[in-house]
Amino acid sequence: MSLQFRRNEDGTVTGRNENNGFTVTHADEEEVKRQLYEDAGWEYTPPPPPLPPGHHRFLLVHEEDEGDCAFGDERYAGLRASPPEGCVPVDRGCFALECRRPGRTLLDAVAGTVAEIRRAHGVVMNAVRTDGRAGEWPDVDADRAEGGDAAEGVAHLVLTAAHRSRRLGYGRKDLVRLLDATGIE
User: Fold this and answer.
1) What is the C-alpha separation between 50 and 86, in angstroms, rounded?
2) What is the Cα 106 distance to its own chain's centre?
């Protein structure tokens, strides 16, 4: 089954179930999604309410390339018992934290949370996940216009790069040198 969504020039959104041709257009994108999900026989879950200004929602994950990272693993006991404020431990096939944290930007909120967890519990959260994202990298211009989560893609890529680099024997200086070489300010 394939559901397609298109933002129209007049500000409305059109959704179409490609299997049966059911089409709906509405000013409210969530109403379009709800109707298409209902038509497809799927459960619709509305998006969570918006966060206060300066707060960000993200899912931090601890994954291992080899070995067990199950939610109940003993090394997460302290983190399950005392997660950072605004974070809730969840089982996502590995240990994860659903977080709603303050920060100037999403990257600031993720970085502060990762550092706090590493200092307090000795665990390095090495991935950021976003449920429901079709691809790893969104259309950045459309994402910005829609208040999207392109920053989560950046956070995920940086955390994954740090994790994999460490496993390959590279350190902080190597990664910083690489970032500096790009000319990023």
Assistant:
1) 15
2) 10
pTM: 0.64
Q: What is the DSSP letter of 58?
A: E
106: exposed, middle or buried (Cβ count in 10 Å: 0-12, 13-18, 19+): buried
Q: Tokens at residue 17, please?
A: 């179930």
pLDDT, one tens digit per residue, over 86-133 is 999 999 888 999 999 999 888 888 889 999 999 999 988 888 875 444
What count of other Cβ atoms lies within 10 Å of the Cβ of residue 22? 15
Residue 24 CB contacts under 8 Å (≥ 6 apart), including other chains: 14, 15, 16, 32, 35, 36
Other C-beta atoms closer than 10 Å to the C-beta of 82 total: 11
SS3 labels along 13-33: EEEEECCCCCEEEECCHHHHH
Residue type, 104: R
